[in-house]
Amino acid sequence: MTRSTTGPGAAPEGAAPPPATGPRVVVSGAGVRYGDLTVFDGIDLTIQDREIVSIVGPSGCGKTTLLRSVDGLTRLNSGSVTIDGRPVEGPTPGVSMVFQHFGLFPWKNVYNNVAYGLKLAKAPKERIAEVVPEYIDMVGLAGFEKSYPHQLSGGMQQRAGLARALAVEPQVLLMDEPFSAIDAQTREVLQFELLRIWETRPIAMMFVTHSIEEAVLMGDRVVVLKGRPSHIHEVIDVGIPHPRTRATLKSARFQEVTAHVWDLLMQDVIAAEREVG
């Protein structure tokens, strides 16, 4: 693995620096295999509090599997994951995941979908009544509390999924290609909405995506997975300060990092697509 030397992006203006209590998430020597297939092996990675780490790599390299391992949904065959120093052995309090295909309950309206995690955690009714409207409003769904998923656009459904994940006030937010199932214009809107929310309440975030541009826009660091089994080929410090805006997409640093990641992955992506075809 190689690591670039450029410093990471600055913290959001006015935000306190990350606490010096050690990393929020530590992945050490992690490996997963299914039968004779080893998906990834020897993964070492740390995520600090108030840091967004993007994960990119060719199809089939184990990006989602790595995320599910951090969430405790997939068991490692080797190595370990700890969150705040505690081993992950199953779904962990303080960790929320936003899935690619929304994951909303079709028989629940927006309010009850957003409230689901809090109810599961047996939060008091008063707390639910206070928190749920706050997060519905935060993601721009005020007025749609009684609407059901089939009455919402794809972007609105993903906003509801994000509100549900945030309502439990996690320390770690895991994003599994959250915007890949929606149109390009809505995707860009939601990217900046998520950054706006994170800049207001920064937490540790892992963001898996197939889009290199999205990885660079969202991440303070970009982790590039390559190989069979996959491993961390390089970790790139993006070096773009917050807050990020549409002007970020035109900056020289954004173009530089995007081109570098593409150079690392181009041949692997082409090979993976040929195998799928």
From TrEMBL:
Domain spans labelled ABC transporter: 25-252
Matching Gene3D superfamilies: P-loop containing nucleotide triphosphate hydrolases
Region ranges (Disordered): 1-23
Low complexity bias (residue ranges): 1-14
Molecular functions per Gene Ontology: ATP binding; ATP hydrolysis activity
SMART domains: AAA
Coiled-coil spans in chain: none
Keywords in alphabetical order: ATP-binding, Nucleotide-binding, Transport
Tree of life domain: Bacteria
Protein name: NitT/TauT family transport system ATP-binding protein
Pfam families recorded: ABC_tran
